[in-house]
Amino acid sequence: MELDERKRYWFPAKRYGWGWGPPSTWQGWVVLLGFILSATIVGVVFTPDVHPFRFGAGILILSGALILICYLKGEPPSWRWGSDSGDLP
Question: Which residues, 6 or more positions from 13, have their beta carbon under 8 angstroms from its beta carbon?
Fold first, then answer.
């Protein structure tokens, strides 16, 4: 894969397994930090011991939004077994 093609992804694919790794662009970091901040706010406003269903629904919605953004702006997900180029440590 070309370097220019990889640069446009906010979330690169993980080297092992399925999914995405840490963000590779500032936009990805803004999304991740926004998710963390929003999840913290949901946890403070809807404490799990008092509002378990609202807390769960809020976290579920936020997680779904994060996964959707990763899917749209990240490298296409697939199962990976490591690097084929032999550059493993």
Answer: 19, 20, 21, 74, 75, 76, 77, 78, 80
- Let me know how many helices (H) and strands (E) the chain has, helices first: 3, 2
11 assigned to some structural domain: no
Confidence band, pLDDT 50/70/90 cuts, at residue 8: confident
Mean pLDDT score of the chain, rounded to an integer?
87
Q: For the chain, how big is the Rg over CA atoms in Å?
A: 16
Q: Does some domain include residue 65?
A: yes
What pLDDT, in 10s, does the model give residues 40-55? 999 999 999 999 999 9
60 in a structural domain: yes
Query: pTM for the whole thing?
Result: 0.78
* Number of domains, the chain: 1
User: What is the SS3 assignment for 44-64?
Assistant: HHCCCCCCHHHHHHHHHHHHH
The whole domain housing 60 covers 25-74
